[in-house]
Amino acid sequence: MAEICCEAAAAELADRKGECVVADAGSRAARRRRMEIRRLRIVAEEQAAKRRRLEEGDDEDAVMRAPAPRFGVTSVCGRRRDMEDAVTTRPDFIHGHHFFGVFDGHGCSHVATSCGVRMHEIVAEEATAAAGSSVSDEAARWRDVMEKSYARMDAEAVGSRDTATGAAPTCRCEMQLPKCDHVGSTAVVAVVGPRHLVVANCGDSRAVLCSGGAAIPLSADHKPDRPDELERIHAAGGRVIFWDGARVFGMLAMSRAIGDSYLKPFVISDPEVRVVERNDGEDEFLILASDGLWDVVSNEVACKVVRACLRNSSKATTRGGDRSSPTSNLSPRQSSGDDEEAAGHSDDGAASDSDGEGSGEDRACADAAILLTKLALARQTADNVSVVVVNLRRRPRS
Fold it and tell me: Biased-composition ranges for Polar residues (predicted)?
């Protein structure tokens, strides 16, 4: 009887072991299936992410290969005896980025001329060097690039007049020395990139963006009586005297500039840099101009004038008729000599009649720039007037 009970117990134990073996095998198989499913899911997610990165890279490359923005330039002496402004336009000065600058000289023209010749080269060098840095924030990287570029440009302007051009330029400066302390220039620079607009300003020239029909200033004038600038000058031991307007020590009507070593450290060359993301659906155009325009024309009026010119040009093109210029009877007096060469624009102050597919020069933008210039002259501006109009509507690739 005992033997029968032992056999029954042994059989039951064997059955339980068999069930456990089967259960363990089933759980291991299920675990393997789950792990395989998880592995396949991870592989699928990695492949999808890779495809997205490739697609985004293709989009970025397409944007970088997009044609340069259309622009127009004019620069006139106005009622001044001498032309002291310089303008620079350099499409694709680095891959996918386009440089525009307006430099308003004072005391003489050679610092503004040097800025027109050298600033885009310095910015390109600093941007190339910053491309390999560990800074991932594009806005912070561009601020650093612009600050270093302005510091280098100021050092060249203060150090020697012939550093930038290789020979002292011909000018009417009363101090024909390698170093000229009483000469300087404002500098407003815009870099139009595929994703961002970078604007750096030092002085009282100005950049204004028209976006969604609104005039948006991208720079603030550096006037000595601006509260923060006034406080900075006083903290450095300087004074602001009101002599035909607020002036540093009664002499210079701006608190920041390239050059002017005789007023340092009260007049500094540090730019204020603003980086804004481009909005293709809203951004229309960008205006860069010297204070000869902004002294007599408001941001809003300037944007209305440019918008009307671009709209009329677009309508004429759509109709397929002769696109007559609203400024065809205007011939503002242009800068001459080295200023024209530094500016890099045509003798008549406008771009060619063609749309300038290669260079980006555009008749409608040039008409708008000329019209703004004539408006400033009609309103009795006493200064040189230089204007750059950049159309921010992207052009389809041909």
Answer: 324-335
pLDDT digits (tens, 9 = 90+) for 376-397: 999 999 999 999 999 999 876 6
Q: Give CA separation, 263 vs 121, 171, 342, in Å.
A: 27, 22, 26
Lookup: tokens for 187 = 């500098």
For 204-232, b where at least 16 C-beta lie within 10 A, e where not — what string?
A: bbbbbbbbeeebebbbebbbbebeebbeb
Q: Is 275 helix (H, G, I), strand (E, B) or coil?
A: strand
Tokens representing 257 are: 């500039």
The one-letter amino acid at 33 = R
Q: Which run of H or of E encompasses 258? A: strand 258-259
Contact 186, 205 (CB under 8 A): yes
Q: Which of 241, 138, 254 is nearest to 198 (CA)?
A: 138
Minimum mean pLDDT among 101-110, 277-286, 341-350: which range? 341-350
Whole-prediction pTM value?
A: 0.75
Give the phi and the psi of residue 269 in degrees, each rounded to 5. Answer: -105, 5
- Number of residues that make up the chain: 398
What is the average pLDDT value for the chain, to the nearest integer? Answer: 80
